[in-house]
Amino acid sequence: MKKALFGPSLTPYLLLAPQMAIVAIFFLWPSAEAVRSSFHIEDPFFGTATFVGTDNYVDAVTSSTYGRAARFTALFTVVVSVVSLGIALALAVSADAVLRGRATYKTTLMWVYAIAPPVAGLIGSMLFDQHIGPLKEFAALFGWDMRVGFDYADTAIAMMTVAAWKQIPVNFIFFLSGLQGIPNALKEAASIDCRSPVRRFWTVVFPLLAPTSFFLLIINITYALFETFGVVDVMLKGEPGNNPVTLVYKVFLDGFRGQDLGGSSAQSVILMVAVFLLTVIQFRLIERRVHYA
Amino acid sequence: MTVSSDPALAASWSRATAAAGANRRRRNLQVYHHAVLIFGVALMMAPLLVAFASSTYDPIVIHSEGLQLGYGGEFASTYGAVLFDRGGFTGDITGVRMLWNSVILGLGFAVGKIVISMLAAYAIVYFRFPFGTVAFWIIFSTLLLPLEVRILPSYEVVQSMGMLNSWTGLILPLIASATATFYFRQFFKSVPDELLEAARIDGAGPVRFFLDILVPLSKTMMAAIFIIMFVVGWNQYLWPALMTTDESLFTIVRGIRQILQVWIGANIPEYNKALAMAILAMVPPALIVLIFQRAFVKGLVETEK
Amino acid sequence: MMTLLEAAARHVEAPVHTPSDRALTLEIDGVVKRYPNGALAVKGVDIQVGQGELVVFVGPSGCGKSTLLRMVAGLEAVSEGEIRIDGRRMNEADPADRDIAMVFQNYALYPHMTVRKNLAYGLQNRKTPKDVIAAKVAEAAAMLQIEEFLDRKPSQLSGGQRQRVAMGRAIVRDPKVFLFDEPLSNLDARLRNQMRLEIRKLQRRLGVSAIYVTHDQVEAMTLADRIVVLNGGLVEQVGTPSEVYARPATTFVASFIGAPAMNLLDAVVDGGRLRVGEAAIPAPAGAPQGPVKAGLRAEKARLVPAGQGLPFALEAVEELGATRLLHGLAAGAPVVVAADAALPLPAGPLSLTADPADLHLFDARQGGRL
């Protein structure tokens, strides 16, 4: 808390006005609208809405396509987070330890951050393409007939690969900065106490990285849930058919394609609750980091 | 080890071998780390190299022989066509136009967000007023819900305000999330109190303190947030895809969705052009990240925590 | 509460400047600081500062000295009472309108401005003409010998140089009162001594009144025209350094001012004797009978062969160069005795004694001087 503040006047209200206006119109209003319409069934022709209580929620949760999407989303989130975090951690540890070329490695590994998810999706869908994709050919060497876009599992694997790949740079940057934040004296003390670099890593370095890792886990879950929309959309070429979709993608499909406003809104609200819980965890973490940093 | 009659010599010899062993281990470890990093670089770069290489080939070659890893000689014609040929349904939109639209979106998003959030954070941190705490919680509730989960009602709100196919309708809802406000609040709180006190004794009021002291102090922070927000704005996909049906407002990332729809049903899809567009879409944000690497990493790591 | 006149009347030896001779620059009148949660940081304080006088507020952390200073500066609101500068009520005035200048503990230099801009900023805000600003900055820079740094940023300066810039920023304002908030605590010991002397000379030369807040009693003793000892939001004593040292008004002042701290012993005045435990030494003439706190400065304590005072058991010796400090137990209570280092360490069983005139007697419970 600041000790000496400016006293009450009109100024703070004027300063807040633009942000508050935008938040009210483009955040509060739509969010309230989502909650409202999740309890209604709307008739697109007559523009009427009937209150149906929690029917939309019940329908959404009990439908088989929702269950499938939910299971896929859970798997997708876990695989993308774990794979991306694992590779990024290995790279960060090496980039921190390497004596020569550190800056070059760092730059090369991090700039992929700038690539938009749909752009990654486009390149990925070509790499896995039925006709021209080198990764499909590579899989064929092992007798695996990869049919991305047609086979549920193959499509899922391709989507996870691209989504995880795209997230490696962010994780790498955070892990590397976390590693570089560990005082050198501590690393030196550890090298006197323990000969094995592997053991040293798991007993000293990794526990010190725990706050970073936990924070990144939340970031990755949020990424896998929402920001992969572009990857999914482009890799499915806008035609989901029988292919796996994430929950956010399903909200979009049911709302815009299926014109099922109530059902889509109910799914939105379920996601809102999930994100809310995630964010609460993240905030508690931030507080802790702020206190001990 | 040989047994020496001279214990001192034996000791020094064993120290030497131990040191040699440690050196060897250290060298081996370095080899391992380089191997891991080279693998990582290949993993991150190979898809992009393949994408760029293939974009210089004739689509017929790609169609019959798969993606390429060489130089196909069609660089100028492909990129020229993507950048300057008029396309789309209206026959009016060029790659240059889409890039320019992306610049507008990236700049509008980043600048708008920085200006609005700095003002709000300034009010929250430096003023004591009744509404302050409430405003704080309202603004920060936006961190809870990304645009994706409220996409449909947001669309309807923008539609009802008649802002579809407008820059305002495209940019303002994206600014509604208060991430930058949060960063600036954290930053302002870390500015020593004594600076405000000294400035007040020096006769600076709220406006002067903001312009003379706080804004100059925030320069690196602003630069870092600008870079991140520009990239985030440039990379927007879902919202522009819904909001803009008017092709003259298409951004390059939005254009990728369009090219896919043209592609479905084509005999020989224009792989080269699609990849060229992907490359064009990634070059500007990538350059910004590379050129301002330090500010970018600082911004990312220090603001996200 | 001791007023200025009383303080002046009690002067043992007339100081160079008697505050009562001069016009009052600053009056702190019954000032109270109450926080929104009800806590009292300052519990009713009256202090007057005369023209050109340097008054040091000293006390432990949390005693209210900084809060008091910040109320004078206008950085904290005054809950009760009044603050006047040159006779004008200042309670509601903006910090910029109080004609004060402040030097902060961490200097609070604007990090993005050059030294020159740092000095000029306050004057620019007052719409001072450019040539006047330039002249004042040049004058202050010359006075502080920081001319060669004028175009550097604060980050390129050493701690001592930053300190000078902070002083310069205060000087160019030509204030009625300088306010110093522990300005030397971020400097190393050697620089601190040097800057302390410079602040003193500068303040004398400019003839501007000043309040100087510190927790360091050495700083207080060496700088002050008058010292205000604060404790728990109240004034314990106001007086010249020699006065506060020679006649501490309370046990708190006695133990806070002077290094090593004054020895305080639980004792009983019994006729002409001061009994401590089983032993006794002569009591000062006219001492009230009954239990007291007896104070004795380390340098006034004398060690004599056993049997002539309080039995003394030596526990440790600290060599300070010219003197040495002998730590031990006198009749069971810890005491320190300062002795000339040139003399040999006393050997054999010892006793502690003192001239009755060197003894300070305080109320056993309230701690007030008797």
UniProtKB/TrEMBL annotation, chain A:
Domain ABC transmembrane type-1, first and last residues per copy: 74-282
Keywords linked to the UniProt accession: Cell inner membrane, Cell membrane, Membrane, Transmembrane, Transmembrane helix, Transport
Gene Ontology BP annotations: transmembrane transport
Entry membrane topology: Multi-pass membrane protein
Chief place of localization: membrane
Cellular compartment(s): Cell inner membrane; Cell membrane
Gene Ontology CC terms: plasma membrane
PROSITE patterns, per the entry: ABC_TM1
Pfam families named among the record's database cross-references: BPD_transp_1 (PF00528)
Residue ranges crossing the lipid bilayer per the database entry: 12-29, 74-99, 111-128, 200-226, 266-286
Main function: Part of the ABC transporter complex UgpBAEC involved in sn-glycerol-3-phosphate (G3P) import. Probably responsible for the translocation of the substrate across the membrane.
Subunit annotation: The complex is composed of two ATP-binding proteins (UgpC), two transmembrane proteins (UgpA and UgpE) and a solute-binding protein (UgpB).
PANTHER family: BLL4140 PROTEIN, SN-GLYCEROL-3-PHOSPHATE TRANSPORT SYSTEM PERMEASE PROTEIN UGPA
Record family assignment: Belongs to the binding-protein-dependent transport system permease family.
Protein name per Swiss-Prot or TrEMBL: sn-glycerol-3-phosphate transport system permease protein UgpA
Organism per entry: Albimonas pacifica
TrEMBL record, chain B:
Residues of the ABC transmembrane type-1 domain: 99-292
Keyword Amino-acid biosynthesis in record: no
Main location: membrane
Annotated GO biological process: transmembrane transport
Protein's job: Part of the ABC transporter complex UgpBAEC involved in sn-glycerol-3-phosphate (G3P) import. Probably responsible for the translocation of the substrate across the membrane.
Family the entry assigns: Belongs to the binding-protein-dependent transport system permease family.
Protein's name in the database: sn-glycerol-3-phosphate transport system permease protein UgpE
Organism: Albimonas pacifica
TrEMBL record, chain C:
Gene Ontology CC terms: ATP-binding cassette (ABC) transporter complex, substrate-binding subunit-containing
GO molecular function, one term: ATP binding
This protein's record includes keyword Cell membrane: yes
InterPro entries: AAA+_ATPase, ABC_transporter-like_ATP-bd, ABC_transporter-like_CS, ABC_transpr_MalK-like, ABC_transpr_MalK/UgpC-like, Mo/tungstate-bd_C_term_dom, NA-bd_OB-fold, P-loop_NTPase
An annotated GO BP: carbohydrate transport
PROSITE patterns assigned to the protein according to its UniProt record, in alphabetical order: ABC_TRANSPORTER_1, ABC_TRANSPORTER_2
SMART domains in alphabetical order: AAA (SM00382)
Keywords from the named record: ATP-binding, Cell inner membrane, Cell membrane, Membrane, Nucleotide-binding, Sugar transport, Translocase, Transport
Domain ABC transporter, chain residue ranges per copy: 26-257
Family membership: Belongs to the ABC transporter superfamily.
Protein name stated in the entry: Carbohydrate ABC transporter ATP-binding protein, CUT1 family
